[in-house]
């Protein structure tokens, strides 16, 4: 159901039955709706990080109580309409990303006010935030007759996957009218790519574009620019064009520690650490001994934790080979929720199901996660100012 039609239906039904709602309940309803309009929804809890906002929880609980009371007072038609109301809260604040949640909480997001409509389907850019390291923006889709997700395939009632009408097929971006290839001066290995994932609702998506200038062969994103996004949707011939104004909204802290660790034929150097309320960014150089197996580069990864052992989830990484035995890695992870005294970077190799193989399926644990073999001693502890 279209949200505008739903709201109209609720208003009309409310007028028709206003005499059935006691004044005290009417007053309580208005105050709760006013409260809900000025706060944010409790972000989705991660398994490792539980966050509770008492004010939000209380308001949501009040809304649930109110819904029950209205169901008893209002006729079934209005009660059903109330159940279809979208959940209160923005796309960023519902994302499983503490950087985007922080952007909402700190008032750093902007509203692009850009939309495009074709064949009765509208795409609109809802939110955007830029800290110099990544530009993130959210998109919402509205329209009739949509049976699939905005991103990726949908599993039908028969259990088979399908790509629904209005699902994203491809996307291209321009920075101030310049393509990513031209912006990167033709260095394909460092071209920033637009990536996206599904929001908490299947009609929403979160996009991000990550700066690659740490690798030293491309220029950094400007502090302010206009991003033009062209999206192609399945079943719709005309592409959608959205304009996203980007402006750096944070003062980032930068550390150049040049710290090094060596272990088991590997050498790891932390060349740069940069952090903001939205991201933590590291520039690493990795060198392999001459007797090492070059194929191990393909399964080498790094984990960043604070002094409490809390893992900062990976957002993006891009590697650039500087020689046959050396590579630079631009690693972007989520911000630390509470400012730590120290961060730890640990190197590991993924294990394969066949321990004698250097390819094939990864070995997984009981939760289905790839098993990591931490490289003993390949670890750097860096103080955070």
The CATH architecture term of the largest domain is Sandwich
Roughly how many Å apart are the termini? Answer: 51 Å
Backbone structural class: alpha+beta
Radius of gyration: 24 Å
CATH topology of the largest domain: Immunoglobulin-like
Oligomer: single chain
Strand content is 35-45%
Largest sheet: 6 strands, antiparallel
Morphology: globular
Q: How would you state the average pLDDT, rounded?
A: 81
Low-confidence stretches: 1-87
Number of β-strand runs: 20
Notable characteristics:
385 residues, alpha+beta, Immunoglobulin-like, 3 domains, five-stranded antiparallel β-sheet, 6 helices, globular, disordered N terminus, DUF4179 domain-containing protein, transmembrane helix, DUF4179
Short description:
With 385 residues, the protein is α+β, with helices and mostly antiparallel strands. 18% of the residues lie in helices and 37% in strands.
Overview of the structural elements:
- Residues 254-359 form the DUF5643 domain.
- Keywords: Membrane, Transmembrane, Transmembrane helix.
- This protein has three domains: 3-83, no CATH class; 98-247, Immunoglobulin-like (Sandwich), CATH 2.60.40; 253-383, Conserved domain protein (Immunoglobulin-like, Sandwich).
- It has helices at 3-16, 23-37, 54-73, 76-83, 98-105, 180-183; strands spanning 114-118, 121-130, 134-143, 154-155, 161-162, 168-175, 178-179, 194-198, 204-210, 224-233, 240-247, 253-255, 259-263, 266-275, 280-288, 300-306, 314-323, 326-333, 342-350, 372-383.
- Strands 12, 13, 14, 15, 17 and 18 form a six-stranded antiparallel β-sheet that branches. A five-stranded antiparallel β-sheet has the order 1-2-3-9-8, with no helix packed on it. The chain has a four-stranded antiparallel β-sheet with strand order 7-6-10-11.
- Helix 1 packs antiparallel against helix 4.
- The protein is globular.
- Strand 1 (114-118) and strand 2 form a beta hairpin.
- The protein has 385 residues and is α+β, with helices and mostly antiparallel strands.
